Structure formats: structure tokens, C-alpha cells
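Can you give me the bound-state structure? Components:
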Amino acid sequence: MNSIIFSAAARLLVALMFVFSLFMLLRGHHLPGGGFIGGLIGAVSFIVYSLACGPAEARKALRISPEVIAMLGLGVALLAGMFSFFMGDPLFTGQWYWVGGDSYETSAFSINTVLVFDVGVYLVVLGGILSLTYAFEEET
Amino acid sequence: MADHSDPNVPWKTLSGLGTSGLTAILFLYFLQFLGPVAASEPVRFVWDWIPSLDVSLSFYIDGLSLMFALLITGIGAMVMLYAAKYLAGHKHYDRFAIYLFSFMLSMLGLVLADNLIALFVFWELTTFTSYLLIGFIHTDEKSRRNALQALLLTATGGLAMLAGFILIGITQGTFELSELNAAGTLADQPFYLLILILVLAGAFTKSAQVPFHFWLPNAMAAPTPVSAYLHSATMVKAGVYLLARMHPSLSGSDVWVWTLSIFGAVTAVFASFMALRQTDLKQTLAYTTLMALGTLTMFLAGSSGYAITAAMTFLLVHSLYKAGLFLMIGVVDHSTGTRDANVLGGLKSSMPITAAAAAAAGLAMAGIPPFLGFIAKEVAYAGALEMQLMIFIVPMALVAFALMFAVAGIVAYKPFYGPQGELPHEPHEGPWPMLLGPVVLGVLGLLFGLLPGISAYYLIEPAVAAVMGAPDVGGRVKLWAGFNLPLLLSLITFALGFVIYQRHLALRERLAHIEARAADLDAGWDRLLEHFVTYTKIQTRLIQTGVLRQYMFATFAVFAATVLVTLMARNVGGISLQFAGLSFMEWGVALLILAGSVLVVLTSSRIVGLVALGVVGIGVALIFIMFSAPDVAITQLLVELLVVVLLALAFLKMPNLDPSGSQTHSFPNAVLAVTVGVLTTIVVLLVVDQPFDRRLTDFFEAASWTEAFGRNIVNVILVDFRTLDTFGEIAVVAVAALGAFALLKGFARARDARGGDK
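Here's the bound-state model for the whole set.
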């Protein structure tokens, strides 16, 4: 698509949408959002970019090939799930560590495998959809 | 065939000495159990494996499993040392050592497992590792084919056996062999016959009973150490082991006695004639192994002390002399370059140690006193005389043992004495790593015979006790049992065997004539596979048409049919429609969705259809928002967006829709679409009519914050309560994306390769 307006606007939009997708990913545990929705929004942001500037440019912007991102996400999710196994719990049991306290209320923040798993979901969705879309676009 | 290594190549590699050494350590480890087990104290180790399915990793060491474990590790260590020299310098030797070692461990697991499911897993592991070993010379097509044949045949039997095991587990409530055997015979239980047939299918294919025998001689395509180890001493005995292991549970019926007697006897006699017919000494040994397996099966048919003692003694002596003979043939082959019985002769002077080892093994095989083979034969005759089908078993055993006497002469005497033939290489004595095995095994055969009391107390009687499920009275294994019927039968055997040996050349020609006219099961196997491939091709062509529209039609048709049948069979009540109380907004969204759907069907433009479909999707998303499910609504909107983008990209490459709107498939498609729509609506209305079950909802509402520290229940379910499901889903997403990517890129590459338009 050779529209200067679109490609100029796209550069701004893409950055905003991508940040928004991370925002949706992180707030997911308490408010609407999460890895799946975040991943979809992230994928849409890069699709907009590829429509504006072409798939070659979009691939360059992504730096890592989308197939690798998807597989990486699957690995991250699996590791997050297996972590509990090494801690002696059944597979895929969420593990929580409170920083600066010993419960949700008293701690400053928490480190947990649930969010790591959601990051894996995010990466799989982002990478999966982008690898499909880019392949489609490059077909032409 | 890269069967013969250069004598100057270094053979002391890590993989060779390492695997051999580890196996020897295992052998020493198992030796310590000899005392306790002989004092009838079986040892049991248990680890939970899959407790929800009642599958545990339990190991049980009693007389039977200990004898097997010692044979597996003892012969294994010597074979691995032998192989290190035999295959020294082979570029894939390291691979071979790993295969052989993994086989040894699987086989060890098989004989020690107390849980039937664990036993099955190890069973199939031996199948798999032996596939790799038979096909080791993978550049040879015949070797690959024979490996596949062994794999298919034994794995099929293994699956039947698994079904039998599961039946046992369901009907008896336990998978533990020690508990099953303690409970006594299953002969009066329901499904006994089915269980027996299924388990025997596994045992008979693994132990190559006629008519499943043909894979074993073919498996000789493997390098000689493999034949010596897998196809004489260990793996092929797994079937016999299973029969012995399950003897207390499965025996005790006429079916057991008749089936095992007939299959065993036919295999034994058939195989011993076939052994006489072969000229390749390795093939001769392969058939004598078959003969031994048949004999063992035949004696396991019985339940008397002598029959079982015969089976266990013969098992021990056969493992010793057969592994020794195979290794010896390998040495001869290595040294002279041939295994042809017609050519070999007079090697005694050039290979004295090999000749001595061969003589020891041969004398044990022929059953000459004071070797253990003699005792085995005496006990065997005593056992045969006690069997239910004595009138049938005794003559069959006599023929088989007499033929074996003759074959022992062909294999162990003839190559070393008499005139020397035209040999490809000048014969020389083999290197020590290759001689160690045959010599040790030969000496053991003699020692066990000279000290019958010790071998009986530590090895044979505990094994007999394990098979019979009761302490053994003992005292049957002795070198001199007095003048009795077995001794007379032994003398007849020697006489008959000697006559056969004298005339074996003439007999071999006669047998070759008969064989040429007999049905060839091996070729039949190839035909069977061909037919199977043809059938699958037809099936694939019928089901996989490659037209997406037909797949969709079939999927929806099956869906409609199953729902329709269920609805009619369940005789569901009436459906009440209530339009009162719908808000203006809800009416508006419903009309929007309806308008979109009608437009999709009627339009002749793909882009219009796509937009109309988008309208439907957004309408659905609006419904989600109205019923306060923001997560689902956001996902729905985003997916709609992506669908529009992807389809728009795809449409660029598709032809226009038929402008006249009269497509050939329209009418059936319309009928199916309406049916699916109406049925889905009915099902949804019926579901809504049911009182809403709040149990899960209540649980998640309560637990989401207290247990998973999250307020967004949808997300908490996805990433915490149902993580495994989510993981499965993202795996599907990733695999589907990869698959589509590969297809699209693959097409592009294929088109580029053709030099087509891009």
C-alpha cells in the first residue's frame, strides 16, 4: 500500500499499540487483558506496520523471526509450568514469591510463574499469528 | 558388509570398554542376590510411577528373574567386549555400543519388572532397540527390510499382549505380577481364554514360534554379536520368560497344555530339520535357536516338577552354549572370511582355542556327559514322560534332540576336523577379546555339569520354584540318575543323532527339495505388506480428496447427523421461546447479526461477504459486552479483525465468485447450512432451559482471589487453574502456525523451482 499518510501514521500507531499490548498483558491478572489478548494486539500492531511498509520492513522491525518467537513462547510457558515440578508440586502449579513480605497484602510485589506462563502465551500468539500473516503477505 | 575389522585398528574405545565394564559391574551386583534368593527370599523394589493408573515401577528379584538377569549381564558384558573388537574401526561403532547397551538395560528391565505395564514398556523397548540393531548395517536394503519385519511382527504381538495385560488388570484389580501369581490360576475367571490368547500372541511372536518364526532367521542380517546376544541368549527368550513368569496365573487349563505343547513341539521339530538344511552356519544356529525356543515352550506346557526343571535347565544350558557358538562362528568368519559349512574344515591346528571352545559348546549342545547339556536332556525326557500329552511330546522331543546332536556335529566338529577347504583368507587364531566369551561360556557349561548340586541350588531350583509358585522339592538335577527310561532315551538319541550326522549331506538335499515346494511364509509376508499398502492408498484416495469444501461438508454433515440422532434418541421436551423482556439494544444487535448473515449468503462479491461476516462477528462481540464478559469480547473483536486481514490477503489470490450465483454445490450446501443452524439453535435453547449449575462458577469466584491471587477470573482460569489446557492450546496455535507457514513457503519454493510465475 503506497499511502504516505497511512505509513506515517502507522509508525506512531504501531509503537502505541505495541506498548498497549504489553500493558494488557501485565494487567491481565486483575483486569480484562492477559497474554492471549495482549498477544493479539501485539500481532495486530505489527500487521498494521507490515501493511503500511511491506512485510520485509516489518520483519526487520521485529528483529527475531516470528516462528522463533512462537517456539520461544512455548518453551517459556513449558519452563514456567515445569518449575513447580522441581519445587515438588504437581506440574503447572503456580509458584508465588513475595518480595518484602510474606503474603499478598504485606509484600511490595510478587514474583510468580503465572505471569511467566502468560508471557509465554503472549509470545506464542504474537509469533504464531505473525508467522502466518507474513507468509501470506509474502506469497503475493 | 562392513563386518570385518582391520586387526590393527585400536579397539579399546571408551564406548566399548565402558559399556562392557558397566554391564560387568551390573553382573557382579546381581551375584549378591544368589544367596538370599536361593534361600527363597525374593527381593522387591517399588517406586510409584503413574499412581492414578495403578502403574508402578516395581522390580522383583526371584529365582527366575535372577537367572535371566545374570545371563543378560554376564553374556552381555562378554558380547560387548567381543563387539568392541569385532566392529573396531567401524565408523558407526559408538552408535552400535549405545544400541547394545540400551538393549541390555531394556532386557534387564523386562525380566525384573513386577508390574505388567512396566513389563510391557520394557518389552517394547527391547523390540525397538533390536530393530536398531538388526538394521545396523543400514546401507543394506535386505537388512533394513528384515529389521522392519521383526519390528512389525513382534510389536503387533506386543500390542495384543498389552490388551491381555489390561484385561488382567481390570478383572483382577492389580497389575503386580507377584500378587497375581500368589493368587493362583486365572483359569476359572471370566475372560481367561481371551487373556490367554492375547498374552500368547505376544509371547509366540517374540519367541518366534511357528508360524511367526520367519523373522528370526532373517534377523541374522545383524552383526554377529547381536545374533549371539539378542537372538540366542536374551531377547527371543523374552516370550519364554513371559510364559514362565505367568505360569502360575495362566496355566492350569487344557487350552494352555494343548496350545503350548503343539506350538512348541511343531516349532522344535520343524526348526531342527531346517537347521540341518542350512549351509550358512549362522543360519543353522538361528534355526537351532528356534528349536530351543520350541522345546522350552513345549516343557512350559507342563506343570510337573520335572517338566519345569527341564525347561529351566535347558534354558540355562542353551543360553550358555548358543551364545558361545554364535560368538565362535563370528571368530571363524572373522578369521577365514566364510561361514559356509561345505567349505570349512580342518581349522583345529590353526585355531586351537576356538576349536576347544567350540568343542565344549558342541558337547553341551549334543548332550554328552558330563556337560550340563546332558543333565538338561535327561531331565527333559523325565519331564516329557510326566506330561499330559506324553504320547506326543516324547517322540517329538526325541526327534528334535537327535537332530540337535547331528547339528552340533556340523557346527562344532566339522569346521575344525577333516580336510581344509578353499578358504578366502588364511585362517589364524582370533584375538583374545573375541575368544574370552566362547571360552568362558564353554567352561561354564562343563562346570555346571560337573557340579550339578551347586548349579541346581543357586540357579535352577530357585527358578523352578518361581515358575511353580511353590518351594521346589529339588534333587532332580544330577549327573547320574541310575538306569532308567530317560537314560535309555538318551542312548537312542545319540545313536539316531550319529546316523543323521553321517548322512546329513544326503538328508540336506532331500530337505531342500521339500522346502522348495512348501509354502514360503517369508514371501507371504511381503505380499501381505504390499496388499496393505495398496489398501491404504485406496483408503487415502477415498477420504483425503484434497478439496477443502468437501472436508467442511463432511465435518458439518457428521456434526448434524450426530446431534440429530442424539436429539431424537433422547426424546427431549418442548422448547419455549420468550421474546418478552428483550431490550431495544438486544433486538438491534440480533437484527444486525441476522442482516450480516443474509448478506454473506446472497452476495456475489468476496469483499462484501467478508465485511458482512465481520458485521456478524462484531454483533456477537456486542452481545458479550452486554452480558459483561469484556475479556471474551476483546478477544472476539481482535480475532474478527485478524480474520478480515488474513482473508483479504488470501482473496487477492483467489478467482472471483461465480457472478451468476448458480454454483453447482449450492443446493446441498444450503440444506446442510440450514440444518446445522437450526440444530445448533435447538441445542442452545435446550441448554438454556436447564437450571444453571453454579458449582464451578461459585468455586472460581471464591478461589480465584484466595488461592490464585487474581481478580480477573477468566485470566486466572487460563493461567492458573487450567494451565495444562492453556498449554495444549498454545501448542496447537504454534504448531498450526508452523504448519501453515511451511505449506505457504513450501508452495512458494516448489513454484520457484519450477520457474513459474512469481
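A couple of observations. Chain B has 31 helices and two strands. The mean pLDDT of chain B is 87.
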